[in-house]
Design a protein that fits this description.
Strand order of the largest sheet: 1-3-2
Strand content: under 5%
Distance between the termini: 42 Å
Largest sheet: 3 strands, antiparallel
Radius of gyration: 22 Å
Shape: globular
Order of helices and strands: HHHHHEEEHHHH
Number of strands: 3
Helix content: over 70%
């Protein structure tokens, strides 16, 4: 089969995306691990960012590598069990990435909040329970996604396109049971809605606090260094950029996925677009943190 220039660009694009993302997140993991090995006390945000980097690496491996295999023509390799495992871990780490980013945003919002009585108690609780919160993100996503691979199996070709939906190397059967469809949709969208709401609320709150800080600094006529943001404020800006990037790619990807489910009939270009967009945040987030 002849390979067109478009096919070559697509293949190289996915290879670069996966490679850059895995290398960037691995670099962050090594950086945070080396800090802990030298005896330095890691910041609480470093633990959350380590959790995020692990989720990103797993996402790129379970989503990027099967996609690379598919676009390079390596099909019918996973089998039913392989498809179920890949689908399960892909959905699990996707939820883990969302949960961890929401956790990071809300944690930073609490840390930079005013040092009053109520906020101080909340800060103490947040600092003490960082590890437990990361653990909850893992456990909740491991349990929520247990039923996801039930109707997923190896790639199938059927004359009845309304019953089989292909996803690269795997496929899933469409169920016409309305009750099951409603329950499935609620279980899959409710955690996303909760953490997206948490992320949006924390981001708006941090923007307001930073704006208030900037307004106060403008009225201080001392040294020029007083007009610079503190390291805490700079860290907040970085986390805001991280959350904004996640929200942008999440909503754009969701639009394509809704269009695919409602109007399209398993169009190959749409599958490539949604796959590429879903892996953009795991690739970009370590670059934001490094730069």
């Amino acid at each position: 089969m002849t390979m067109t220039p478009g096919d070559l660009i697509l293949r190289l694009l996915f290879v670069l995306q996966t490679g850059i993302g895995v290398l960037g997140n691995t670099f962050l993991l090594l950086t945070y691990t080396s800090t802990a090995c030298t005896g330095q006390t890691p910041r609480p945000t470093h633990l959350i960012l380590t959790n995020l980097a692990v989720a990103n690496v797993f996402f790129l491996l379970f989503k990027g590598i099967p996609q690379i295999m598919f676009i390079w023509g390596v099909v019918h390799t996973l089998g039913n069990m392989g498809c179920k495992l890949v689908t399960y871990f892909h959905r699990m780490v996707r939820g883990l990435s969302l949960c961890t980013t929401g956790h990071l945003s809300s944690f930073q919002a609490i840390i930079i909040s005013p040092r009053t009585g109520g906020w101080m108690k909340l800060k103490d609780a947040a600092l003490k329970n960082v590890s437990f919160s990361c653990f909850l993100c893992w456990i909740s996503n491991l349990l929520i996604n247990l039923f996801v691979p039930v109707h997923v199996g190896a790639l199938q070709h059927s004359h009845n396109a309304t019953q089989i939906r292909n996803f690269g190397l795997c496929s899933s059967s469409k169920k016409h049971n309305t009750f099951y469809a409603v329950i499935y949709t609620i279980l899959m969208t409710f955690p996303d809605a909760v953490f997206m709401g948490l992320m949006l609320g924390a981001s708006v709150y941090m923007v307001l606090l930073l704006h208030r800080h900037r307004q106060r600094v403008r009225h201080i006529h001392t040294l020029s260094t007083s007009h610079r943001f503190s390291p805490e404020a700079k860290a907040t800006q970085t986390i805001l950029l991280l959350a904004t990037t996640f929200i942008f790619f999440y909503f754009v990807n969701s639009i394509f996925m809704i269009y695919d489910s409602a109007f399209a009939k398993s169009q190959l270009w749409l599958y490539h677009v949604t796959t590429f967009l879903s892996a953009c945040y795991p690739m970009v987030s370590p670059l934001i943190l490094m730069l």
